[in-house]
Amino acid sequence: MTNLLQMAQKDLAFLVKLNQTPKSVEEREAVLADPGFGKFFTDHMVDICWSEHGGWHRPRVQPYGPIALDPAAAVLHYGQEIFEGLKAYRHHDGSVWTFRPEANAARMQRSARRLALPELPTDYFIDSIKQLVAVDSAWVPSAPETSLYLRPFMFAKEAFLGVRPAAKVNYYVIASPAGAYFTGGVSPVSIWLSTKYSRAGKGGTGAAKTGGNYAASLIAQAEAYENGCDQVLFLDSVEGKYIEELGGMNVVLVYKDGTLVTPESDSILEGITRDSILQLARDRGHVVEERKVTIDEWRDGVASGDIVEVFACGTAAVVTPIGLLKGDDFEVGSADAVAGELTMSLRQELTDIQYGRLPDRHGWLTKLSD
Ligand code: PLP
Ligand code: COI
Predict the structure, then answer these.
(1) Most-buried pick from 101, 147, 203, 218 (CB within 10 A)?
(2) What global pTM score does this model have?
(3) Distance 209 CA to ligand 1 centre (A)
(4) Nearest C-alpha to atom 2 of ligand 1 is from which residue?
């Protein structure tokens, strides 16, 4: 039996090399029964090459496995890397869909520009995901609120030690069955305010989805854990008083008059979940503001009762209520807080759309397989 099939594509002809030693059905079912987040990977991956002279070429789906890198590969020295995160959802009829992939493709193009990497065209991005899900569709779980997390990423593969944009880059997609990001499910999480560390600086890479931002957040995230908190909140690096975002999620505050406020800043990641949630809130008649928010506004607003709910949002976290905000010398809210009503109903509406339980009135879904 041949394991090489040529698959016709509109723009890119993917070579599909099937994994000859995939996980057994039993192994896969055991993973899907309790996937956690980011711990297990499917049988295949996408790999597309780019070179300065050849452009995007040699697209393939191949068995999941290690990537051979020259020790001088530029990414290992200068961190020229970007990534994305989106999910594939199984609907009741067994079909598999993804959510706003063109927005992830556009964000990856913006990240690429900032990191001096080549821009992957939107069609290629969406095709790459379709190709992977076509061979690994059995890995899309069907239990409530589970999904297949898709992780496209791109990095500088050229071997050289000079500091300049690499002339050889590879783009990959891997996939990982996913349950809840936080071990406590959707119960309220606690947030540690980092005043010692910044995630991003003025003119830096904060708005790009690049590994360096996450590397810079790890020590602050460790401080959050040491202080008994689930996630870290960063402030702006210039004045140190405006809230930006969490290590891996955006933040939204809900006021008692129903207004939703989210920080405006050019150094935070423009979340697709945040954008979608704010659209759903607008559709319901809520006022939505994207503006600068000081940490005092959050602290005082929760204490006075002006702010009635706060939540985190992102692809991995979906919408997660925030119960407690804690800093060096203060605490507001409570770790045992009850999840906010609006938070939970927006979460429900978003997931109902993603899982096909409500009509897709904004045209956010793309079918990946039948
Ligand atoms: N902010 C950061 C730092 C993130 O890592 C993420 C997750 O991707 C988000 C915000 C939310 O973005 P999205 O909703 O597009 O997943
Ligand atoms: C995502 O939500 O896609 C992210 O990249 C965030 C990370 C915490 C997993």
Answers:
(1) 147
(2) 0.95
(3) 8
(4) 248
Kindly state the tokens that stand for 295. Answer: 């940490």
Q: Rounded CA gap, 312 and 348, in Å?
A: 14
SS3 call for 47: strand
Nearest to 116 by CA among 44, 164, 180, 186: 164
How far apart are the C-alpha atoms of 164 and 124, rounded to whole Å?
A: 26
Interval 297-306: pLDDT, tens: 999 999 999 9
At residue 244, φ and ψ (nearest 5 deg) are: -110, -85
* Torsion angle of C-alpha atoms 318, 322, 328, 332, degrees rounded to 10: 170
Cα gap 91→209, rounded to integer Å? 29
pLDDT in tens, 100-129: 999 999 999 999 999 999 999 999 999 999
Q: How far apart are CA 60 and CA 4, in angstroms?
A: 10
Nearest residue to 1 (alpha-carbon basis) of 26, 24, 29, 20: 20
Encoded amino acid at 216, one letter = A
